[in-house]
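Record type: monomer structure entry
Structure origin: computed from sequence
Chain ID: A
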Amino acid sequence: MRSRGVSGVVGGVLVAALVVGVLAVIGYLNPVRQLGVSTDRLGPDSGEQVIDYVARAEASLRTDNPETRWASVSFDRELTAEQAYEVAGGVRISQVLLRVPLDRVQTPIVTVGVSGSERSVLNSTARAASLLEESLGASDRQAQIAAVSQRRLLDGCACVVTVVMRGTPVELTDVASRADVRAVQALPPDAVSGKFAVEPLLPEHVDVVAPLPDDGPVPIA
């Protein structure tokens, strides 16, 4: 009886080892597919000095690799969609980040995906306004902020703070030299669309990237 129990245990161990070996071979022959870069980020960190971020953005453009890459373009003032498209100078825009500037009032940042065509970029303000619909039923102050933001976006306000584009280092460096551009930061060429975050450098961020004041009255219109 005892020898049969020992042989049973040994047999179980051998079977388990065989299963592990088979799974190892299957794993080797069918490696897990990499989903791409998921930790990349464009834009400044919270609490970062603006001068440090601008220097970091400039350094991201210095490369000998000519491959196209994703990049964020931050402006020194809010632009209209038309102005932002002109600044891009033909480099394809994939996202437009908009924020309605209100004195001492925190307003939402709305990200709109675009196809890169002029029409899609110019329509980004109207699309941003439609995305604010779900905020209209929030708390009184937030609803008021959403309502005035929506009205100004529909009026075609100068509300573009950042765009995301894809270009070569040479193209992006050229964009960085244009009027109204504050910083251009590029990701490595292996960064995957939809797998990186974007944080805008707002024109109000002068010395340090920190939350803006939110103690002012919300305008009626």
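Annotation 1: The radius of gyration is 25 Å.
Annotation 2: The mean pLDDT is 86.
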